[in-house]
């Protein structure tokens, strides 16, 4: 059990412990918050929890300190004469609701858009979805989950016709082969990675395969490390499937009984022999064969996928091929056999489930009229009042409508698009238009908040109650431990206030939102999810108190939750039940009901083949590198919390750029040299870290923006946000922006006066031996208590 | 037999469809998904042009295997204009008109493939039938794309 208490306190000093779970990554680890004199003073892992058994990662141990940061927003702000000034809640909310009402009257609901996050609680997403879809009647609702997990959902919808993870973290304990596709688990989910390390250090260790262009800690632990050229994932996957199917390493009975589409898949991958993939991906052909053999001969195969696939070219097509590997091998729904299409954020799963991200609540199908009628029944509104003429509008399309002026009201909750979206010069220019009314609800004055017309100060984790769910479907309750600072209010309260001021009502004239607290919202959600795949009807706050988190579906029949879905080849893919009829993997065009019924009348798993297409932006003489952006262990998103935790900020204080040793040597550059990285869209300056990344590729962490820089929300002279450089392009199927295939150039501005300030403990480990190691020091001393007794 | 004629007509109509898709792409550079997807699927028509030229030789027609040109100066100008006009509402309506046009052209090509497949079957030209079976699904996907994109774009363009 890991714990950290600030101010030199010990457990004896703590007044009380309050149950919660981790919020600065997507693993969903159970933890308790230590409270003393009405303040949060530390955290400890919950040994009883099925997810982490008491373990915590660095962001959990230290990140809570940001709650106390002196620059928290404590009063609403409103723009007067061009400046944001403090105001009271009534004035701020009247301005927000007033402008929304004006626009509804003048231009209709399609002038209103909502952009939320993967960091609120389920209750807040469900309420937001109800207000936007059922009350205001706009189709423009999305979350920043579009940037992190949209492809996970899309890939599951393609293969299984519904969202919902076909894996469980316990599969790590049983698998004999674990394949991580573009998934640097050691930095994104440290506790889950510890579980893999336990296996590797114990008897019968699994073989690990890593697909990543960087030499990550996962790559170092792998039996085979494939480092393909960015943008070629589909080519690589097709070659792996070529070998697996060609060698007959498939479960023919499973394929015949539980799938459709095998013949087309087999035919398609015949055109992708490893020799061709070796050429295109620039990976040794023996490595592809070796990886395919290990996967093909696995007895219990666990596959995990993350941003290396989701944020790259042909995202959904590539992630679907991972599903195909497990499906043709019949490796689903039993211990050790699973797929984890991972999430990037702690509550991203709930954004998807509750219908705040371009999906409808409880995996209802927007193109199935009976699902819309059912949702209208739950909400007591007219089905015509719930827009379903197309899927809810994704953020990149919302921005296009903001650009052309048809969206005039943009309500952003707990996310920072002015740093996290691609091509920032464009984003800043769109968000600062006079004709756009921008509302930002956040806990700090982020880059985006600085552009807002109204800023609403929100409470955060530890200051409000709610539930959230991780990637293996484990639901946790997170209880309020302390009051929010100043006048800050829980997001749920603010949203309900907004609905009341707009006077949103159901079809009988009663208030549309029937609840006024989190538990009421949760009860509403339970009714909405009953009978759907993500069934919460057997859960309650009381049931979630005291013990471990619980995996959905939780029903009368499965009161303790469900470890494996899709056991015995039973899916949620029946045409009248499924969430999605699927899309064309290249054009993104949705299939209609008739097409889906013809393809998959009895609801089997769908094996979908995909052709490889070259990336849209290719390298040239002018831009000879491929630029990929990514994350580091010590920061989360745009550092709004992690940069305010001293130990985390010290570990990764400043942006850097990674390049391979051979590329650096060719140019005579060295560790610590100051480089300018450019694309047709912008320029970033950063110190060079010579790392184990593959030649021809540059890596920039995307966390670093401008809120702690002089100009506040934009570059002052030179840029440091990686997204100054990225291109506006997205996967047509999942609509996830592409952050990993821009063509870029690098020039040296000055020789270095010391190494880059990049962590040495991670994927950015230096090649040179003389870089001082990243160490926590005395300020970061945490306690680990072993189950067998004793502490260290 | 008039198989040569059918191949020649398809070669023309696929070339035309590719050009239409590229032109639509250029006109809607500010609509990034349209810009990129239209280019990707224009590639399918260009591949069909090459394959039709290859098989045309067996039927006595001499066709250019090179698809007709990449965008020139005019198209680059359209891309720049599209960027400049990005802030105005009219491109939404223009997009609907363009997608409708793509759908009609692709429907024509689809019918041409039907004709060719029927003829190939009647004449027992296995290789030609195989080509039709390989290529025609791409045309249907092009049609479905135009249809789906039209449906998705219509509401905002017409209601707001």
The top-level CATH class of chain B is: Mainly Alpha
In the CATH classification, which architecture of the largest domain in chain A applies?
A: 3-Layer(aba) Sandwich
Low-confidence stretches of chain B: none
Q: Could you please say which CATH topology of chain B applies here? A: Ferritin
Largest sheet: number of strands, sense, barrel closure of chain A: 7 strands, mixed
Instruction: Report how far apart the termini of chain A are.
Output: 10 Å
Q: Give the CA-based shape of chain B.
A: elongated
Proportion of residues in extended strands of chain B: under 5%
Number of helices of chain B: 5
CATH architecture of chain B: Up-down Bundle
CATH homologous group name of chain B? Ferritin, core subunit, four-helix bundle
Q: Give the total of beta strands of chain A.
A: 28
Number of domains of chain B: 1
By CATH, the superfamily of the largest domain in chain A comes out as Dimethylsulfoxide Reductase, domain 2
Structural class of chain B: mainly alpha
Explain how this protein is built.
The complex is a heterodimer of chains A (792) and B (160). Chain A has 792 residues and is of the alpha/beta class. In chain A, 30% of the residues lie in helices and 17% in strands. Chain A has 27 helices and 28 strands. In chain A, the strands form six sheets. Chain A has a seven-stranded mixed beta sheet with strand order 6-5-17-16-15-7-8, sandwiched between helices. A six-stranded mixed beta sheet of chain A has the order 23-25-24-27-22-26. Chain A has a five-stranded antiparallel beta sheet with strand order 2-3-4-1-28. The termini of chain A are close together. The mean pLDDT of chain A is 96. Chain B has one domain: Up-down Bundle (Ferritin), CATH 1.20.1260.10. Chain B is built from five helices and no strands. Chain B has helices spanning 3-27, 32-56, 73-84, 90-122, 126-159. In chain B, helix 1 (3-27) packs antiparallel against helix 4 (90-122) and helix 2 (32-56) runs antiparallel to helix 5 (126-159). The radius of gyration of chain B is 17 Å and the shape is elongated. The model of chain B has no long low-confidence stretch (mean pLDDT 91). The A-B interface holds A 107-108, 110-111, 139, 389-391, 393, 396-397, 400-401, 403-407, 584, 586-590, 613, 616, 728-730, 732 and B 30-33, 36-37, 39-41, 43, 86-89, 91-92, 141-142, 144-145, 147-149, 151-152, 154-156, 159-160.
